[in-house]
Amino acid sequence: MPGPVPNREDDLARPRERKGGDVQAVTRGELRPVVVPRADANWHPIARMLWDSLKKSGQADFYQQSDWAFAFSLCEDLSVYKKSGKRSGQMLQTIYSAMTNLLVTEADRRRVRIELHEAEEEETPASVAVMDDYRRGLGIVG
After folding, report:
1. How far apart are CA 16 and CA 18, in angstroms?
2. Tens-binned pLDDT, residue by residue, of the chain (142 aa)
3. Nearest to 93, CA basis, from 78, 73, 112
4. Which of 58, 71, 134, 142 fits a disulfide with 116 by CB distance 3.0 to 4.6 angstroms?
5. Residue 136, H or E segment
């Protein structure tokens, strides 16, 4: 999606679907089990850092096996590029462009309307709250 980076949903006065813009329907599929490949031990340290960060980042929740295969290939290309004595600006641009397909940066994610938020901590887990209510109902003070 070319163009400027959209605002975060929290920054909008009202939801996008109420603005009258083009809201496209989503075609749904089924998530399949994923096995993340191991990084190549011979990769350049920067390629390894990118690989490790992809595994830990929130967008990995959306990755399927083909995404991990693409990320692996991209890290391989980045490693070859970084180890190369003769570097090409075009090759680096191609690698950076490919990273947008994996939603590596926040701007990439916002362009496709994916926002990562910090997990909200429950003050009291639901199971504990239910047991507390049950005890109170029985007249047991804990």
Report:
1. 5
2. 567 776 666 666 666 555 555 665 657 788 889 999 999 999 999 999 999 999 999 889 889 999 999 999 999 999 999 999 889 999 999 999 999 999 998 888 888 888 888 877 766 666 666 666 666 766 665 5
3. 78
4. 58
5. helix 126-138
- d(CA 96, CA 41) in angstroms, rounded, equals 22
CB 66 within 8 A of CB 124: no
The CA–CA distances, whole Å, from 72 to 9, 65, 107, 119 equal 31, 11, 22, 28
In order, the DSSP letters of 42-92 are TS-HHHHHHHHHHHHSGGGGG--HHHHHHHHHHHHHHHHHHH-SS--HHHH
SS3 11: helix
Answer yes or no: are the C-beta atoms of 67 and 31 closer than 8 Å: no
